[in-house]
Amino acid sequence: MTGARSVLLVAQIAPPSSLVAARRVAAECKYLARVGYDVTVLTSVASGQGPIEGAREVVRTSDALTSGLNWRRGQFTALGGASDESYKSPSRLASVVVPDLSLGTWLPFALRTARRLARERRFDCVLTTSPPPSTHLVGLALRRRGIPWIAELRDGWTFEPPHGAWPLRVQHSADRALERHVLTRADAVVGVTRPIVEDIRTRLGVEALLITNGFDPDEVQRTTEEDGVLDPSRHSLVHTGRLSLAQTSVQPLLDAVRIVSEAEPVAERLELVFAGSVTDEERRALSAPDLADTVRFVGWLDRPRALALQRAADTLLVVTEGAARRSVATGKLFEYLGSGRPILVLGDETEAARIVDETSSGSSAPASDPHAIAAALRRLVEAPPERPAPGAAAQYAYPVLVERLAESIEDVVSRRTS
């Protein structure tokens, strides 16, 4: 690279937010800066305040989601663990606005600010990352001004989206038409899982690039000691983070625990520990009296404690929707890979299960079959899995992944300038 490329990274969710989307943004800023890029971040005040490591400047715009007009704004604190409240299901308005609510709450502020920034300084490339997919309209607007643009999809847009089906056919059609209009105009499209990339290639005819989520080796090195949450006399199966935010259900797992509990010697040697924010329904399910001897919910832990808990666990748990969203490989999965602990994926048809198998980092079971999950739990206790080999997940370290992103930036810039 000749000189420092200037990149505008546009993401509604960014550090210091504790949402997993912010961690990818943090890694892209830090590691692009380390290889010589000049990064400006355009984000929302909904993510909090403060600098981001590696970013030359962080520009935080207004967002109606955090204004007094939004009576549900307390959901941000619940999702981030800043309050003990349970988080709620998405607003009904989310099933009305295509492609997403941010079209009206954040995009007007983001577009105006992005255009101002583009007038004030020269950007060699703009990188927009979704969800929400309306973020990519910022990239489309700046591309019309001659700035090369990369659109990054952390979830599918209309392919296995993280929301339910649109209630009306006209909404579904409008969403697909907007997706095609936007993504076919990007200079490059990045998808974070193989199924997302394959869908973009086959359905839209766009040569998408796979750059998965990953883990930050700097965080792994800074991990502290676990502070006594786990019972050393039991095999600990640990889940950190959120469940319903990704539309997953913990019920088949809890039913499996009930099945296992019928064999008392197994149940006495197993503990399931959940740390994170939950819905009211999840809180009730995890606190059921008949599960009290095996299942514990320890509430929200700050990031250092959550990482320490991961590294102390005997096995780490990923819960997916199974066949309903085969493309899922959650950000949590890659944190788990970085911990060096064995992983159990509920959802043996998913991309998460494929990655765990590829790296020999654990096992999987069907997401919705309590008896199959119960068999997997018994195996954990009776034949505990070995730790993955050192370096098994090295390809998913963010320094490696961001090198691929840098190559894509160089490619789109050189194509546009030539």
Describe this structure in words.
With 418 residues, the chain is α/β, with parallel strands linked by helices. Helix content is 39%, strand content 15%. The chain folds into two domains: 230 residues, Glycogen Phosphorylase B (Rossmann fold, 3-Layer(aba) Sandwich), CATH 3.40.50; 179 residues, Glycogen Phosphorylase B (Rossmann fold, 3-Layer(aba) Sandwich), CATH 3.40.50. The protein is built from 16 helices and 13 strands. A seven-stranded parallel beta sheet has the order 3-2-1-4-5-6-7. Strands 10-9-8-11-12-13 form a six-stranded parallel beta sheet, with helices on both faces. Helix 11 links the parallel strand 9 and strand 10. The longest helix has 20 residues.
Write the layout of secondary structure elements.
Elements: E1 6-10, H1 20-34, E2 38-44, E3 55-61, H2 75-80, H3 102-105, H4 107-120, E4 125-130, H5 136-143, E5 149-153, H6 169-183, E6 188-191, H7 194-204, E7 209-210, H8 217-222, E8 235-240, H9 251-261, H10 264-267, E9 270-275, H11 280-286, E10 295-297, H12 303-312, E11 315-319, H13 331-339, E12 343-346, H14 351-358, E13 362-365, H15 370-382, H16 398-417
Parallel strand pairs: 1-2, 1-4, 2-3, 4-5, 5-6, 6-7, 8-9, 8-11, 9-10, 11-12, 12-13
Helix pairs in contact: 1-16, 4-5, 9-15
